[in-house]
Amino acid sequence: MSVIKSIYSPIRIIGGIVFLAWAGIHLYLSTSLLKLLPVVGEFFIFDSILAIIAAALLIINFKMLYLPILVYSWINYILITESRVFPAPVLGYSLPVVNAYVIAALILDVIAIILVTLIWIGSRR
């Protein structure tokens, strides 16, 4: 039995928790952003809903959507890193602010990418 197969279930649960934590951070930030930048606040709410759906799909072991969840994780990672260097897609200017929330979101994005990759590989075996 491969190592990935034996830790497949716990990794799925941990992956779901990572997505829920990521959604929690973004839902928290959306409350203040709705007043300052409504478009960004609404995007954070939409993206948080997608993260909650991804968490549910990982936890219930819906194998058909593991690859789209992996793509979603990469898109989130690219958006947060790209918007710090280049103009953000909707705003037209870069977001130079790097605070605890940005660092936490980056760390959770990297963890999510690693875990979903392992989950996807484990589901194919």
TrEMBL record:
Membrane spanning residue stretches: 12-30, 36-57, 64-80, 100-121
Keyword terms, alphabetized: Membrane, Transmembrane, Transmembrane helix
Protein name, per record: Uncharacterized protein
Organism lineage: Archaea, Thermoproteota, Thermoprotei, Sulfolobales, Sulfolobaceae
